[in-house]
Amino acid sequence: MSASDATAMPLILAVPSKGRLQENASAFFGRAGLKLAQGAGARDYRGKLLGVPDVEVRYLSASEIAAQLASGAAHLGVTGEDLIRETLPDVRGQVELLTPLGFGNATVVVAVPQAWIDVRDMSDLDEVAAGMRTRHGRRLRVATKYVNLTRRFFAEKGVADYRIVESLGATEGAPAAGSAEIVVDITTTGATLSANALKVLDDGIILRSEANLVASLKAPWGEGQRAALRTVLGRIAAEERARTTREVRAALPESGTIDLATIAGLHEAELPYGAPKGPEGEIVLRCREAAVFDLAGALVEAGARAVTVRRVDYAFAAENPLAERLLARL
Ligand SMILES: Nc1ncnc2c1ncn2[C@@H]1O[C@H](COP(=O)(O)OP(=O)(O)OP(=O)(O)O)[C@@H](O)[C@H]1O
Ligand SMILES: O=P(O)(O)OC[C@H]1O[C@H](OP(=O)(O)OP(=O)(O)O)[C@H](O)[C@@H]1O
Ligand SMILES: [Mg+2]
């Protein structure tokens, strides 16, 4: 498709249609003022973003989202980093991980039966695997749906005597069922592993994953899609900036001066509306949430008469760092 054909096409935004990422994903877009409007009902897998033209929403499973970002069938999507790293042969060349989203946290781990008391880490596992091979002529079986992550991790750890048994669900049941000796799977609370009498190896953490906002480098990025991208990412950045910072307002002293530049520098605060024009008046700073009390204290100490701190809903700025980072790579 040529760039001019792509101009008339919408930006395709892929969001999880089910599972544990779905609710969190729509809440995330909602906070950023991006309301997802699903078509006729829960079974209509297309929708729109209210008030943002040139965007088509597609509801897909989390693993399908990874595949569509890889191929360029979707421009933007929300999915787990585990699925991105498992599905894409060249993560850097195919997508840009724009920002982690703080939900969908899960860890991909190597787990073995608790009964294997002498097996604590990957080098112990290597011995078991080598032993099985030489003594019984069998290879250690690893049940997983994370075939690529498993191969890469085992190679890094120098474990070679194993074979993968592909699992499509209920992976943790494989050892008890006799279809594999160990598993590589995702865990969050650990409940499923314990229920199946499995334990994670000490150095068996393959990846700590969470849901990410991901952009495709392979999708056709025409002018209309780039404009829609700026709108969507501008709102997401404004919400994030607002959520992670606080606005600190201070009444400057009637007499004497405050060395605002030094105080701001010390607490990594910005002056989003600029420095005060005269010695008196009101000044607005913005700082990280964790720096609020130190900054407020420093202002009072320096003679500020009233200091108030508030949360803001959105903090838009001329810069659009998420969009700029992506556009620089297209
Ligand atoms: N406890 C968890 N177990 C599995 N995945 C989780 C967990 N917590 C977060 N996730 C994330 O959610 C992604 C999708 O998992 P989810 O279970 O929603 O869908 P799925 O496994 O692809 O589909 P389904 O379970 O319906 O077959 C995972 O790849 C992972 O990134
Ligand atoms: O550590 P825990 O909190 O117990 O969570 C981990 C379990 O959750 C997921 O299964 P899911 O319910 O998604 O079923 P699936 O295997 O069919 O995807 C995952 O595959 C683990 O089995
Ligand atoms: Mg699942």
UniProtKB/TrEMBL annotation:
Entry GO CC: cytoplasm
Domain (ATP phosphoribosyltransferase catalytic): residue spans on this chain: 62-221
GO biological process: L-histidine biosynthetic process
EC numbers for this chain: 2.4.2.17
Gene Ontology MF term list: ATP binding; ATP phosphoribosyltransferase activity; magnesium ion binding
Keyword Isomerase: no
Pfam annotation, one family: HisG
Names of required cofactors: Mg(2+)
Keyword terms of this UniProt record: Amino-acid biosynthesis, ATP-binding, Cytoplasm, Glycosyltransferase, Histidine biosynthesis, Magnesium, Metal-binding, Nucleotide-binding, Transferase
Catalysed reaction equations from the record: 1-(5-phospho-beta-D-ribosyl)-ATP + diphosphate = 5-phospho-alpha-D-ribose 1-diphosphate + ATP
Localization of this protein: Cytoplasm
Main location class: cytoplasm
Record-linked Gene3D superfamilies: Periplasmic binding protein-like II
Pathway named in the protein's UniProt entry: Amino-acid biosynthesis; L-histidine biosynthesis; L-histidine from 5-phospho-alpha-D-ribose 1-diphosphate: step 1/9
Family: Belongs to the ATP phosphoribosyltransferase family. Short subfamily.
Known function: Catalyzes the condensation of ATP and 5-phosphoribose 1-diphosphate to form N'-(5'-phosphoribosyl)-ATP (PR-ATP). Has a crucial role in the pathway because the rate of histidine biosynthesis seems to be controlled primarily by regulation of HisG enzymatic activity.
Protein name: ATP phosphoribosyltransferase
Organism name: Methylobacterium tardum
